[in-house]
């Protein structure tokens, strides 16, 4: 039992070392920016689908008001930073758990948030507006919302405003994590309207997002750059000083005109046909697909090791060892993968006061989760082998361990192969959940592209086709491998 426990912790340690190396080699994907050759480097989190403040352009670079503002301030104040595109909710949680030094993500300065975070001076005065589908002629004011559903995005001024008037006007609220899904819900008719920050809706309408504004702008809060309470005071001071300088030299006004003025209308994507979108989106989607495959392969290597260890523990003759294996399997099969990802990426580092890369957290999550299912596959495969095989091996003088490795396991592997391949497919699909902690795998890459061009149907069709091709190839290869193994077994029996 001590050997098993030691082996388990050795594997976890090896996992962290290997993925830490991988995460360091993948830092280039996090867009490291610098304003000067010298100075401290800060880690800044941001949203990924909040145009015009942060989104990806056709070249795969994160752009927008927040991105260019921070870059200009860094150049003005002489500090370096590393950008972490996580999504708004994950960015706020990362700041709360001190995984990052600051957040710039169109974040409204509210009394509640000021209890947890320190904010810079406001860099943008926002507001709230209601938008509906451009073909809708029935909704003209808040009074027309009675008995209907409206969409909001979590953490936005629009969500706060909608909640403040929902009882007065008698409508229900449906919440989304990103703007593009919220807009799609309105256009599909599931909700009749959405409330969002004015600059976001205004920019979206110039980019042909299929919506139109039907109310005047309501007074709203201001956006600010945030750091943890009592932390990174120097960074906050640099941001404020740089912002003041940009306003004084005119660069701030130039930036606002670029994304909210006449220049914004010129940035509409030219070719929105299916094949045009394939051409413009494929570089980003291929990067996402590669990360999906990378996560799947690395995770399954460690999941297979964990599966063997805990699979053997599940069939052990020792009650304590069996109980340990059962506890591991029940924990990771009995809790959602999303909860596991949050706990590993946010919970553990907060409790132990250290930082963990999203890639490392993602691989650990997938490895532990898939390892629990692999353990059951191993257990089922071993128990499917006739008990007489073990009895025969022991009667020949082979010890239990050698009998298991030399006699039982080779036969069990043949039985397990279809289930192992199926687990590979399931793990590949599960990588999409890790977008919640900022990993830009294939599904997240699709979301990011939609935030730029609002072509949700065509982009999701392209993403679905890519998943279908990869999974079909994998299934064909697994079927061929299974036939070869069975054919080899038949030959060996005949001989």
Molecular structure report:
It is a single chain. This protein is of the alpha/beta class and 495 residues long. The protein has 17 helices and 14 strands. It has helices spanning 2-25, 65-77, 88-96, 111-114, 157-169, 179-188, 198-206, 233-249, 251-260, 274-314, 319-333, 337-352, 358-384, 387-395, 400-430, 442-453, 456-494, and strands at residues 32-34, 41-46, 55-56, 62-63, 80-85, 102-103, 117-119, 124-133, 149-153, 172-176, 193-197, 211-213, 218-223, 226-228. The strands form four sheets. Strands 8, 9, 10, 11, 12 and 13 form a six-stranded mixed β-sheet that branches. Strands 1-5-2-6 form a four-stranded mixed β-sheet. A hairpin with a 5-residue loop joins strand 3 (55-56) and strand 4. Helix 10 crosses helix 17 and helix 16 (442-453) packs antiparallel against helix 17 (456-494). It is elongated, with a radius of gyration of 27 Å. The chain starts with a helix and ends with a helix. The model is unreliable at 1-38 (pLDDT under 50).
């Amino acid at each position: 039992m001590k050997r098993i426990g030691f082996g388990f912790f050795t594997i976890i340690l090896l996992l962290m070392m290997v993925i830490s190396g991988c995460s360091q080699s993948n830092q280039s994907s996090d867009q490291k920016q610098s304003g000067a050759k010298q100075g401290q480097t800060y880690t800044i989190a941001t949203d990924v689908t909040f145009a015009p403040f942060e989104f990806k352009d056709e070249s795969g670079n994160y752009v927008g008001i927040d991105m260019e503002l921070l870059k200009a301030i860094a150049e003005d104040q002489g500090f370096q930073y590393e950008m972490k595109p996580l999504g708004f909710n994950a960015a706020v949680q990362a700041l709360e758990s001190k995984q990052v030094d600051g957040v710039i993500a169109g974040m409204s300065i509210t009394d509640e948030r000021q209890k947890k975070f320190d904010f810079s001076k406001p860099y943008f005065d926002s507001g709230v507006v209601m938008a509906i589908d451009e073909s809708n002629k029935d909704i003209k004011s808040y009074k027309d919302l009675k008995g209907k559903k409206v969409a909001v995005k979590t953490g936005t001024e629009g969500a706060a405003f909608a909640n403040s008037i929902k009882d007065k006007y008698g409508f229900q609220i449906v919440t989304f994590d990103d703007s593009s899904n919220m807009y799609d819900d309105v256009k599909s008719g599931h909700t009749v309207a959405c409330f969002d920050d004015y600059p976001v809706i205004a920019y979206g309408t110039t980019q042909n997002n299929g919506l139109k504004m039907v109310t005047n702008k309501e007074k709203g809060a201001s956006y600010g750059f945030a750091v943890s309470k009592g932390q990174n005071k120097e960074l906050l001071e640099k941001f404020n000083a740089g912002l003041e300088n940009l306003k004084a030299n005119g660069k701030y006004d130039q930036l606002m005109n670029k994304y909210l003025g006449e220049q914004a209308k010129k940035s509409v994507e030219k070719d929105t046909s299916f094949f045009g979108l394939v051409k413009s989106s494929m570089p980003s989607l291929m990067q996402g697909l590669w990360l999906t495959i990378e996560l799947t392969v690395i995770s399954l290597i460690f999941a297979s090791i964990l599966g063997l260890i805990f699979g053997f523990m599940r069939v052990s003759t020792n009650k304590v060892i069996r109980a340990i294996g059962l506890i591991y399997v029940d924990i990771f099969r009995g809790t959602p993968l999303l909860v596991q990802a949050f706990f590993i990426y946010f919970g553990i580092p907060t409790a132990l006061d250290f930082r963990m890369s999203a890639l490392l957290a993602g691989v650990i999550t997938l490895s532990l989760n898939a390892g629990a299912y692999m353990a059951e596959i191993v257990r089922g495969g071993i128990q499917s082998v006739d008990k007489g095989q073990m009895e025969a091996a022991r009667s020949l003088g082979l010890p239990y361990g050698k009998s298991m490795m030399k006699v039982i396991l080779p036969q069990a592997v043949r039985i397990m192969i279809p289930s192992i391949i199926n687990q590979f497919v399931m793990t590949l699909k599960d990588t999409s959940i890790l977008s919640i902690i900022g990993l830009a795998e294939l599904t997240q890459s699709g979301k990011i592209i939609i935030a730029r061009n609002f072509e949700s149907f065509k982009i999701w069709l392209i993403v679905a086709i890519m998943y279908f091709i990869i999974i079909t190839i994998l299934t064909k290869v697994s079927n061929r491998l299974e036939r070869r193994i069975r054919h080899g077994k038949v030959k060996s029996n005949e001989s």
